[in-house]
## 1
Amino acid sequence: MAGLKLVNVNKVYPNGFHAVHDMNLDIQDNEFIVFVGPSGCGKSTALRMIAGLEEITSGEIYIEDRLVNDVSPKDRDIAMVFQNYALYPHMTNYENMAFGLKLRNMPKKEIDQRVQNAADILGLQELLKNKPKELSGGQRQRIALGRAIVRDPKVFLMDEPLSNLDAKLRVQTRAEISKLHHRLKTTFIYVTHDQTEAMTMGTRIVVLKDGHVMQVDTPTNLYEKPANKFVGSFIGSPQMNFIDGVLERSENLLKVSYEGGSVAVSGDREEKLKQNGLEGKKVVMGIRPEHIEVETGEVGDNSSNRALVEVTELLGSETYLFLKLKESTLVARVDPSVKAVVGDWVTIKPRVDRVHFFDPATELSLL
Ligand code: ATP
């Protein structure tokens, strides 16, 4: 078990590319931390610096209060699981799992105990005598996990370990890794570009963009209180809708007006926006698809909040309606009982108590 700390960590590659900017993180024992962000945002670079596989340009990394900047990867007490499993094809699965321990001259008996224990945890007993090529992708990934477990490391590092698995197996293995984390009670750091993986597995998530940390928070807080527009759009599927608007007071109501409609803001949100001096200012509204209510029935040509149904996706338990509101395209997640077909006009009602407001220039949350 170990905590981990990154202090102002930077990575500039020899070609001058600044891949990670001033990364600060304080990870507690037993957390399941996920680094998530689009391709090229620096998540693998950050993980590899923690592993010691990539030199850091400046800053400090501590594992359990020990500065490890100059400690070699094998002495950091971490185990890394890679996307491509990195198993030796000529060895049996048992030998693959035992290999790292053998290199450390561990007694044979202890190696055997550790391999058997990991095989029990992962349900691999039947496969120990086989070679990796005789296994499915999911089984190979379990051997790779087993090889990490036998080391009994302080920290597990995983770089997109599920990306070579098909969709169904990914969901299964995701749950297995979560169970493993509960069972081992060790710190996990997991890299993925998939926000669903991040949200379902992480106890805290680090959202990265262009080498910068955008927000570090629990899945619930990231979803409900995104610090900026990027986090709002990256977390959640279908993604958050954005509409440009202006905050205006009329008839003693604070309203946000946007193309094709307006809604009144009240309660805490009104207070907060007022306090921050935002009356009369332009804002970007961020609305989750489930926070757009859709009414079917007669819609007048000039009525406000009028939107055209362009595409419908029926998923069984819910329906996505892709709507055109003047120039904006929106997606609403509605109950299948809402009967709307392509070409219908409907009335949309953003649930203003759940709407997010962002600064159009800085893109930071205004709430
Ligand atoms: P992906 O999901 O595609 O793996 P990532 O978020 O893990 O992306 P990194 O692999 O950390 O991204 O790369 C971050 C940035 O640094 C990318 O723009 C990449 O092109 C660049 N980069 C990575 N390795 C090097 C290198 N050795 N030299 C120069 N630039 C590099």
Note: The chain has two domains: 4-234, 241-358.
## 2
Amino acid sequence: FLWEWLKGRGLKNLPTMHVVGIGWFTESMKEGRPVAVETRHLIQVRYSLSTICLSSLLQDALEVLVEYHELTEIEGPRVAYSRAASVLKSLPWTIESMGGTEALPCVGEKTRTLIQEILQYGRSFEVEKILADERYQTLKLFTSVFGVGPKTADKWYRRGLRSFSQILADPDVQLNRMQQNGFLHYTDLSRGLSAAEARAVEAVVGETVRTVAPNARVVLTGGFRRGKEFGHDVDFIVTTAEPGRENSLLPLIMGRLEEQGLLLFQAHHPSTLALKKIPCRRFEAMDYYSKCFLILKLEGSRVQGGGQAVPAGRGWRAVRVDLVAPPIERFAFTQLGWTGSKQFERDLRRFARVERNMLLDNHALFDKNQFLAAVTEKDIFAHLGLEYMEPWQRNA
Ligand code: DCT
Ligand code: MG
């Protein structure tokens, strides 16, 4: 009952620990096992529920605000709300009143108003207004297609388009190859990937790289390196010790994937790396390494517990995979950058700039007119005077 009640409220950010507790409680009741319920337990259950709901409501509300500003490309509030969400997520205590919130770093006036509203009414009127907004709903729907960014989504919205069928039926809309494939594989790609599927992709990519370039090194990066259970794609770094050879790796890998009938789509961006361009002050700027954005065919038989992972009867599903191929001496910077999370990268660069007067990006770390060398991520943390953080600690 409690679980259904929580789900019924549409809460997404429920801490597992509490849910396990509730599971045990209701299971015991259902099975007729005696559960000694004392008043203090009931008080505890009520207390946990109200704090779970508050922090969950707050996280959900902040997620909507971040997404809304991302979709409408309003950078300032997007960054401010993301920072506030990270800080509130990492608090060792739960917010139960406004007291003490003024002292929290990165929690500004607007977030404090949001907290106040949620504490007082259990909901945010601003967030409810956004959720009901037609433009927000349409931009969210359109940008869920691979290859469609906020600009294209807004252009279609302003043309009066509101649904996929309207886009596909409009003779004036020219879809590029990426968007055509985004629509073609929409159902599979919008499902995201589990960690088991990511491991299967890792095995396929690993075998492919070993076949075409036995001396190359391939490592998992992105959200799955941070230990995430779900992700929208699987990211890899491939490199080789032979100077200049990294640029030929991706075409070789894509060729082999094609031969195996596993390549459904590829967009390859050759390297534009030139020393004068690094390091880059703008976070949004893509790095200059050779990279490719792929859609691969993942066979269900390759996934542990495969049956439920792919659509029944088809035997495979489409998955998004990104590969980046930096020169070996840039490997550590690429790994630190591509491991994410995006918010962590943003904050780390800001720390380097503001606290250390250094410049950090996916290519290099720059200090007083010189580039600092790094073989591993640990070297970069050490240059920044920071304790090493494991990938799972970078989920902010
Ligand atoms: N990244 C970067 N420069 C950018 C964009 C992203 O260096 N302009 C980094 C940050 C995270 C990493 O690349 C992988 O990006 P995503 O795959 O988008 O994120 P993720 O953390 O892997 O999460 P998911 O794939 O589940 O959305
Ligand atoms: Mg990823």
Note: The CA atoms of residues 208 and 260 lie 9 Å apart.
## 3
Amino acid sequence: MATKQLHVVMLASPGVSHLLPILLLGHRLVTHHNLHVTVLAVTTTATTPQSLSQLITSFASHLSVIQIPAADISCVVPPDAKVATQLCVMMRETIPSIRTTISAIDSHPHVLVGDIFAYESWAIAEELGIPKYLFVTGTAWFTALFTYSPLLDKQVVGQYVDKKEPLEIPGCTPVRPDEVVDPMLNRDDENYAVYLSQAIGVTLADGMLINTWEDLEPQTLNALRTNEILRSVVKYKPVYTVGPVNKRYEPDGLKGEVVEWLVKQPDRSVIYVSFGSEGTISAEQINELAWGLELSRQRFVWVVRPPNGHVSDGSFFKPGQSDTTRDYLPEGFLTRTQKVGLVVSSWAPQVEILNHTSVAVFLTHCGWNSTLESVTNGVPMIAWPLYAEQKMNAAMLTEELKVAVRPEVLPTKKVVGREEVARMVMNLVEGEEGKVMKIKVDMLKEGAENAIRENGSSYISICKFIEDCWSQIK
Ligand code: UDP
């Protein structure tokens, strides 16, 4: 058996932040562990930026990537359902196409790996008689809260957000009630019921791979492996750390507008501002952020999107194309800041930016991919979480790892004021706080590099995963 090549089929739900880590993990399994990997990317036209096809193409030399159009769910869920609910339903409704696609793959798969929205596909693995593994693209702490949620549901009465005390997860750092993941914010909502089924569904896998590493989350990983209550919720299945699985800067000789601009700036002088692949903020918040950046008198690159509530014409606008960015910014902002700032519409080459020596700070929405990209490039952060599990990521970055600061929100206006933005930016770019954080984030960066190098903790964990897969193959 051991002379054969293990064939892993990896299933990604729609969205760059789900597909990207699947592609990256697949790439690592091929290049470092000599496996055969087929990635099934479920995609929708609505959530697919143009860069998605570029992304898939960039992995094509190592992985076979098959795109599967997501099922139309417009008759199944209301259009205002939460994104997480839509993804669960979309993946469930797409199962027949996924099954057909898998059965048409030339070489028989030995293992199925799916993200947290792909749990309905465990049935296909069972039909094929192959093991199935969950790949959590977020933290171990999120994994603990997520899988423990069905028990929490039995213990806690009333809304989580109304609780005064943090929510206890056995063996882990408690989670503040207002920092729970989105579907837990309203327990009366149908989205919460879908979330609980999902939390149970994912644990029916034969094990879980997590995009973290031992030194980053030792306490939580220990709890997932040894705390009797947590072990029971993950059904005594093994937990493998495979991270950081994240995009690295690979010089390709192409220099876009942003990098050309960065080259001209002094070392560690620029703040990069971006809210991920989907994040948007209100018009009022865009205004305060713009004034804050201007008041800070620091250099910046800012990826600006239309404010939430803006009625889009449906076209995903790229730099230079149907650029309406100036409509959302304060009058005269672009002119006044043209010597120190660069505003990019909707999408920027993030990894290239974070890798550049002139970048000092990342103001981020704390999506886990963005967070890892910042850490592995040694860039301290301003944590500005928006949705999903981002508030937990922000709490971990600021309170535990101390590589980020978090803004105070003006209670009366529910926005971060311009003075606060300016204060944080100045402190991190020029002040002592930024220097201390840079030392801490560089230590994390080193830990991350150690984890993934040959015989590092994540490398060994992946080897163990492969060994365990072989042992289950009949
Ligand atoms: N990204 C990018 N350019 C952008 C915005 C996002 O390249 O202008 C990439 C970013 O590098 C990251 C991913 O999109 O790899 C976003 O994933 P993340 O988990 O940070 O957040 P999400 O978009 O899911 O909220």
Note: The chain has a mean pLDDT of 91.
## 4
Amino acid sequence: MKVCVIGTGYVGLVTGVCLAHIGHDVICIDNNENKVNLMKQGQSPIYEPGLSDLMRSSMESGRLSFSTDLGAGVNHGEILFIAVGTPPLPTGESDTRYVEAVAKGIGANLRGGYKVIVNKSTVPIGSGDWVRMIVLDGLKERLGVTQGEGFTMTEEVEACFDVVSNPEFLREGSAVYDTFNPDRIVLGGSSDRAIAMMSELYQPLVNRDFSENKSLPPVPIVVTDLSSAEMIKYAANAFLATKISFINEVANVCDRVGADVTQVAKGIGLDSRIGDKFLQAGIGWGGSCFPKDVSALIHTAEDYGYSTELLNAVVNVNKKQRVMAIEKLQQELKILKGKVVGLLGLTFKPDTDDMRDAPALNIIEELNRLGAKVKAYDPIVSQTGISHGLSGVIIESDASMLADGCDALVLVTDWQEFLDLDFEKMAKVMKQPLIIDGRNFLDKRAIEELGYRYVGMGR
Ligand code: UDX
């Protein structure tokens, strides 16, 4: 099928590349010319495992191209994905101005046959109908109809497109894998024609043709109305964030009573009603989705006169959790002024270069406030030299350099390669061998055998 994806951030680019890989004819549109030029040369502007290879092979097969020309994209696609950012405003609401600009642009370029316009961006509940209205506004503008002229859409124009909500659930760092191995596909909309076209688009994924485990039953498609599909995305992320805040709260109680939260998580996770995922206690959740989506849901509820007691608590627990590592440093080192603290990892989670709302940012800020000197080593940030606008931290090029002269190390991100670090060598260059394991990631006993004082989160 002919597809146009507008916006080449994490969601848009991964969607475009993966749809091309499963056989569709895809054009990805972005208004950032430098980014488009980079992608035209087969280079991915984001770090995402497996993405660059798929991107290049799809480009070679002629099924994937990039352009800044929205009109050409709209003309090409029978399915048009809106996948631009909806960053949080200071109020916690989503900033939908990019979605609005794209919807208007689609309307202004709408010609030819029937098209499905897909909301892939995480948009506030109710945005499906709003997008439809904006597209019609763009179309009216092109047709030269000014406000107040009593313009009525002909049936033909009204029927030339439908809006569908199709939220994504991919995780950064495993976005390609998640796209080929979805747990479900959610399609929200009222048009049978649009839902049928979307189902056809995803058929290879539904059949698990590109999945790691082809013997699994077909992927369920959940068809809902527009608002329910939009709500599914918020509720899924809010539930996962709640699970993490819950286990972090349990970890804090474990710390006080001398229990081990990793054992508790195992014990409760084996109950199939609870499940073992997202029960890893640590310094809390971050990234581009959880913080934004949880606050947007809280905000929407408030708009409709409902106060979300549980979700407010989920956010507050997470705020406290981020600086819990510092409380532990204070317990161990007492005064932090003049102490040197080395952070292992900076990104909000491993296998990504994303620093958005990363717990590391709060930890650096708080350590600076308390007068400590902060150094950091992160496999991606150190390698790429991308500063991410970080201040108050010295970026070291490897873990030994990081350890040199440190009073303590804090493991902030659970990068797999940290398991293979030479902690014995690192202990020798530290002022004192102390590790705060902010992700309960390291082998406590093995680390202690090397002479470290090991402090985990609730263990
Ligand atoms: C999340 C959702 O998982 C995904 O479905 C949605 O589409 C986008 O948001 P992502 O932001 O990539 O994906 O990260 P995820 O792997 O879910 O982790 C989010 C945060 O929670 C990270 O900071 C991670 O370190 C933390 N986390 C996760 C925990 O602290 N404990 C856990 O058990 C799991």
Note: The two ends are 52 Å apart (CA to CA).
